[in-house]
Amino acid sequence: MTSIQTGSTICFKPYNLAEALRGLSQAGFENVEIGAVKGFLEHLDPDDLTPQTIGAARRLLDGYGQRVVSMSGHAQVHTPDGLGRLRRVLEAGRELGILVLNSFTGDAETAEERRAFFKNVRLLAAEAQAAGVRLCLETDSNLLPTARDGVRLLDEIGSDWIQINYDSGNVAYYAGAPPEEDIKIALGRIGHVHLKDQRGGQGVLDFPPLGEGELDLRSILDDLRASGFSGPVSLEIEYRNYEYPSFGECVDGARRAKAYWDSLAG
Questions:
Q1: Is residue 99 within 8 Å of residue 131, measured between CB atoms?
Q2: Could you tell me the pTM of the whole model?
Q3: How far apart are CA 163 and CA 244, in angstroms?
Q4: Contact at 8 Å (CB) between 185 and 147?
Q5: What is the three-class DSSP state of 182?
Q6: Residue 125 pLDDT more than 80?
Q7: Which domains does the chain have, with CATH numbers?
């Protein structure tokens, strides 16, 4: 089995959807992940997913010969607004033909918020299953910083339709853990991957093009291949402190990242 090489629109965070898809196309990506995260990555606005908006996105994708395989709709799952946004992204994604909807767990802290999280995420998982879209929760802060936490959380949720979106850079950034070792705990429970390099260690927001950071990405990809993983592996580049360069430099960064990624397959 082989994974689906994908490029995330977050590589072009400051630019609009048309520019992000054009940049990913110029970098050589035919499969894409679109961000629909309110206030952070609104390449699609989760509060404005009208038929006209979805139709415009489809025309852009068709124009670049691209397929959207996943969407990130990160929202506070335990809140009514967050659940509503994820439902809208799920429906838009179903219409666009995605395989995976990604979210973080949100910032549920109190016992009441945690109860709401588990109730809502199980409800969303059932709706995702009905739509034929896998729901994946990302390694991030709070409830799911590492693979070990993720496996424990999935067991508590108790739905086979939910898996982990493993973000290698986030594990280093939030938990200070080596993702090359951490990912081994979650093999078989991963439905989507954000392939992201990182440099500077815990708390340093610097996710450069692949091969320009400090993570052993070859080891991560080798483990995924050995496990039989066949889902999307999506390139993410998040420049230091979100200070993105010009569009042309973002294209060059994505090209370098893809070339490095391709070299690891040999």
A1: no
A2: 0.97
A3: 31
A4: yes
A5: helix
A6: yes
A7: 4-264 (3.20.20.150)
